[in-house]
Write a structure and sequence with these properties.
Length: 236
């Protein structure tokens, strides 16, 4: 009899504990949905943008990495009124695809067209608490007759979302993109053909350089690219 009463007591206590836990969880959810908030101030670093070279595992320079902070001041009321500053660190990367690559060409005069092809997209997004950071990408290209100079700019955008207030945090979008001229640095005419690789003969080589300038946060950054163009004759 005592054993039976003891079991009933355990069941009753367990039931009370579960009901209490469920009640608390329900109340917490209700409080969160009733939270209100508003953004009362914001900003992003302009003069404190940190620039550093982007190196690969061999120590070669791939491009430039930029880093700066962005923030929002949020006034919210949950159980009491509070003001909090929310921070995020954004990192942008600037990269040129050609760094001394060899291409085959016809040795045409460099194109003096100032137009540059631009395509934008989204790479990924990472959520951490109330902040989601989106990696946006911008591809730029200067097309020639037989090859192209390519550039890639990745810039981050932070979005604050607490379930009541959603706002894009201040960020620096790449702008004022200026296309530079293609320059011939040196030309090497080969009097005796020496390359028979791949069924062609190399007659001459020349080095071409190109650059673009982009403004981020009021500061100009220049990306440079180069390639070795070979003039060839195919062997029949």
């Amino acid at each position: 009899m005592k054993q039976k009463i003891f079991r009933i007591s355990i069941l009753l206590l367990a039931g009370i504990t579960i009901m209490t836990a469920c009640k608390k969880k329900k109340d917490n959810t209700k409080d969160q949905t009733n939270m209100v908030s508003e953004v009362i101030d914001n900003g992003a670093a302009e003069h404190d943008i940190v620039s550093m070279p982007w190196l690969d595992s061999n120590g070669d320079t791939l491009g430039t990495i930029l880093s700066y902070s962005t923030w929002l001041k949020v006034r919210s009321q949950y159980k009491s009124m509070s003001e909090d500053t929310v921070w995020a660190v954004l990192r942008d990367s600037l990269q040129a695809s050609h760094r001394g690559d060899t291409v085959r060409g016809a040795f045409n005069p460099p194109d003096t067209d100032e137009d540059i092809f631009v395509e934008c997209g989204k790479l990924r997004e990472i959520r951490n608490g109330y902040i989601t950071i989106i990696d946006s990408v911008m591809y730029l290209a200067d097309f020639e007759s037989s090859f192209e100079f390519l550039y890639k700019i990745v810039y981050q955008v932070a979005i604050y979302d607490d379930g009541y207030t959603r706002e894009i945090m201040p960020y620096h979008r790449p702008e004022n993109i200026r296309n530079g001229d293609i320059k011939i640095i040196e030309t090497d005419t080969i009097s005796v053909p020496y390359s028979f690789t791949g069924g062609y003969i190399v007659l001459a080589r020349r080095k071409l350089t190109h650059s673009i300038t982009v403004n981020i946060g009021g500061q100009d950054y220049t990306l440079s690219s180069s390639c070795i163009e070979e003039k060839i004759v195919e062997i029949l």
